[in-house]
NADH-dependent flavin oxidoreductase YqjM (Bifidobacterium pseudolongum subsp. globosum), 392 residues
Amino acid sequence: MGTQSQAKGIKQSKTSKAAKATKASQTTAKATEPALFTPITLRGMTARNRVWLPPMDMYSAFARDGRPTDFHYQHYVSRALGGFGLIIVEATAVTPDGRISPCDLGLWEDAQIDAYRWITEAVKQAGAVPAIQLNHAGRKGSIGCFSIGYDGQTVPADKGGWPTVGPSDLAFGGLQAPRALDVDDIHGIVHRFRDAAWRAMTAGFEAVEIHAAHGYLLSEFLDPLINTRTDDYGGSLANRMRMLVEVVDEVRGVIRDDLPLFVRISATDWAEGGWDVDQSVVLARTLKEHGVDLIDVSTGGLIDGVTIPVKPGYQVPFADRIRAKAGVPTTAVGLITKPKQAQKIVAHGQADAVEIGRAALRDPYWPLRAAAKLGVGRAQIPYPPQYLRGAW
């Protein structure tokens, strides 16, 4: 009996030591795991890694009804299978005249909701978080695209174009001049953002991003070179931020408390006397106070003809500064193409996640390849089981 008890004790001791060794090994592996492939939690949403797909316009709603098609399903779900942690569906218009082109996606009516559900469900099944960017194109709306022509030009009314709007009546480059919105118009568009966000929740999205960058309507209000209003929506920085803050408040009010809200901004318009990073820091602080969980940091797109010093990682310093000065999580985007480059950005605390855009168009499985190059263990790389035989 004593011998059996002693043997049992030895066995338990060995088991305990093995368990401790396994736990220590797991802890060491976790500690050495590349920061790029650690999960990130915002409110109640957890993305499996910090490699995200940014919203890139596909201009492929060929029926011009705002509804995603088989192409959109394949485009987004393939990137989810490719290991991205979060997928942001492209700029989705909150009104028909808020589209960038006639072939943009939209969520301006309830009848569009069901067309998104198969995408959100499949993205989740593939292990990624489905997010969506909501937009109003403002003065940069009604332009052409590859499927209809008029690329970079205003689409004529008889070809499906429409009159555009903006904070003021100043045109962008050679595009048509917009009509300046009155206050009732502004309030109406704010409510359309709210309604579109509710539809996004109903369609199964788990994060919403408000597009306030690249010279579209909300960023037009921010920029003093574009917004020449003299009422409560123009002039001072607080006034120029007003419409965006109102949109944030309305959207935050209809999306679930446990799901995050993002805002994409252009941190600078690269123009003398225009929108800059110091104003962006103030904006980010304000948005954080109003329930925004992350700032998606880009630049440019507001002023025509400016020189932008494009090079690998050229926008990362803006994400870094906003993150540090405003105390809010950020993403970095723009010519981030190499795994070590992306890893360094996250590991050094310059941004909380990176967005892989054009490189992801070339390689839908960029995260899987990057994880292998950075030494992530094969069992920890988010391969679909069906693809394990082809693992790097």
User: Anything to note?
Assistant: DSSP finds eleven helices and 15 strands in the chain. The chain has one domain: 34-383. The chain has a mean pLDDT of 93.
